[in-house]
From TrEMBL:
Pfam families: SLT_2 (PF13406). One of its GO terms (biological process) is peptidoglycan catabolic process. This is Lytic murein transglycosylase B. GO terms for molecular function: peptidoglycan lytic transglycosylase activity. The keyword Signal applies. Keywords: Signal. The keyword Nuclease does not apply. InterPro entries: Lysozyme-like_dom_sf, Lytic_transglycosylase_MltB, MltB-like, SLT_2.
Length: 340
């Protein structure tokens, strides 16, 4: 019993140490601190203080290691986002922000149903913007997550860049970086922008001289629309279509979220027959999603790929697309709501 007690006690002490680790003393902290001072003229003692107060969060590492996009089949993943509640909340959000959405569609050319759906999938219309301190999330992922992930170097660099942008964003917006809250991955606000996306794509859409996607739905709408435009959204173009298969298909080419290079003609020759009609030279890529009783086949078009620039997962982009369809259908019960 004494031996078991000592093991348990050692584990508790080790876990406690990991949770409260001083990130300013981490092996990667020195170069990061030097860079923030030299490249961005931060005060060294400020950066050291922020890293000292940042805390490792084991729950973040666990969450990153088990993303729902990979763990759940499509029919279970879909039930998380395409729900009656989220559809009704999306309709309510659309009606409450109708003028802003119409303005965003006119100025950015982005389908308002997609904007509404993104905000619904990301935060359930501002109800779940994340409760982690962003600095905890980003230091944990930049300095510790890499040791447990096969893509450790690219992941470490990505989250280190995000940590850099977080400190820059906080300075630009006159905020304490220790106060900013977000998701376990460090995304913030109604639209869940990573710090670099916040700095690059968030817009002050109500002209109050402050781009606020934390609490301001007007700025969130404009920012999501701007993000899509900057990533290549084509106004009025379709997103995806179901497909039938007329022959055995090559599974290794399915569900690759990348800019489509094959054409409808190419894919038809491979055995994919789109339900909707498109010009033969329309670019697309094939997908297979596991429904409850059988597989569904889809062709993702260019705008589907653009949705994937928000989150490069086929199931995520499909959830956004299908929720947008359901919200638009619900809106069609309102006079003049189906014109766009």
């Amino acid at each position: 019993m004494k031996y078991i007690f000592l093991i348990i006690l050692s584990t508790v002490i080790l876990t406690s140490h990991k949770t409260s680790a001083d990130y300013s003393a981490h092996e990667y902290a020195g170069p990061f601190i030097d860079s923030m001072v030299k490249e961005h003229q931060f005060e060294r003692q400020d950066v050291i203080r922020w890293l000292t107060e940042a805390k490792r969060q084991e729950s973040i590492i666990k969450a990153m290691s088990r993303p729902a996009e990979k763990a759940k089949p499509w029919h279970e993943y879909r039930k998380i986002f395409v729900t009656d509640t989220r559809i009704s909340r999306g309709k309510k959000f659309w009606l409450e922000n109708k003028d802003t959405l119409e303005r965003a569609e006119k100025e950015f050319g982005v389908d308002p149903a997609i904007i509404v759906s993104i905000i619904g999938v990301e935060t359930n219309y501002g109800r779940n913007v994340g409760s982690y301190r962003v600095i905890d999330a980003l230091t944990t992922l930049a300095f510790d997550y890499y040791t447990q992930n096969d893509k450790r170097e690219s992941r470490r660099k990505f989250f280190t860049v995000q940590l850099e942008h977080l400190l820059l964003l906080a300075r630009e917006q006159n905020k304490d970086p220790l106060d900013l809250k977000g998701s376990y991955a460090g995304a913030m606000g109604w639209g869940q922008f990573m710090p670099n996306s916040y700095r690059n794509f968030a817009v002050d859409y109500d002209n109050d001289e402050f781009a606020d996607i934390w609490t301001n739905p007007t700025d969130a709408i404009g920012s999501v629309a701007n993000y899509f435009t900057e990533h290549g959204w084509v106004t009025g173009a379709p997103v995806a279509t179901k497909a039938h298969i007329k022959a055995a298909v090559d599974g290794k080419n399915l569900n690759k979220m990348k800019r489509p290079t094959e054409t409808i003609a190419d894919l038809t020759a491979q055995g994919f027959v789109p339900v909707d009609r498109f010009p033969a030279d329309t670019a697309a890529f094939p997908m297979r999603l596991k429904a409850k009783y059988n597989d569904e086949y889809w062709l993702g078009l260019h705008n589907f790929y653009v949705i994937g620039r928000y989150n490069p997962r086929v199931k995520y982009a499909m959830a956004v697309f299908q929720l947008s369809q359901q919200i638009r259908h619900s809106m069609c019960s309102e006079p003049e709501s189906c014109e766009s």
